[in-house]
Amino acid sequence: HLDLPEYARKVDFYVQMALDLPAGDMSPPFVAPLAELAGDAARAGGKAANLARAAAQARVATPDGFVATTGAFRYFLEACELRPAIDRLLRRVDLSRPDEVADIAAELRRRILAAPIPEEVAGPIAAAAANLGRNPDGSGCLLAVRSSAVAEDGRASFAGQYQSLLDVDPAEAVAAYRQVVASKYSAKAITYRVLT
Fold it and tell me: Fewest Cβ atoms closer than 10 Å to its Cβ: which of 2, 9, 67, 77?
């Protein structure tokens, strides 16, 4: 009976993939200042919401930042018609076949990296990155682009599962965003979601 919790998590994952769940909120604004999203994991994801809350409530020193919202992520998938293919491929995940999981993950990432970020999302990300990448003295600085999925820093930590990009030129922020989104579908992240 010791294996039952693990099997229950796997069954739950596969059932969720088989259901036709609503797409979720895709309304703008697609980018918001970090400080505005304190505690709002539904829009900012767990990591960003907790970081903003720490800055606001505990007065922890944090760097300035902005969040591409969960609505931006959903809008990107829907505008590029990626959701049906993602759902179809995820339904094929079988952890007992790690080579197939790796192949599915590679296909998912390939599709995301090939998709254009819609201007409704790309424009605000580029503008916020350009503003953030400008020091008060007029000099430029490099950015960190990190994940903040809804499940991160919640019931499961997801620590190290998604890609973080450091020293990103603000002009490359949209491409970096796409890479971080694609990392949601790495083999290790998919496996972690099934097992947690």
Answer: 2
Give the separation between CA 183 and CA 106, rounded to whole angstroms. 10
Bridge partners for 168 per DSSP: 143
DSSP 35-63: GGGTT-HHHH-HHHHHHHHHHHHS-----
CA distance to 63, 181, 183, per residue, from 178 (Å): 22, 5, 9
Residues 6+ apart with CB under 8 A from 65: 33, 34, 48, 51, 132
Share of the chain above pLDDT 90, in %: 56
Distance separating alpha carbons of residues 111 and 49, to the nearest angstrom: 28
pLDDT tens, position by position, 122-177: 999 999 999 999 888 878 899 999 998 776 555 655 666 789 999 999 999 999 99
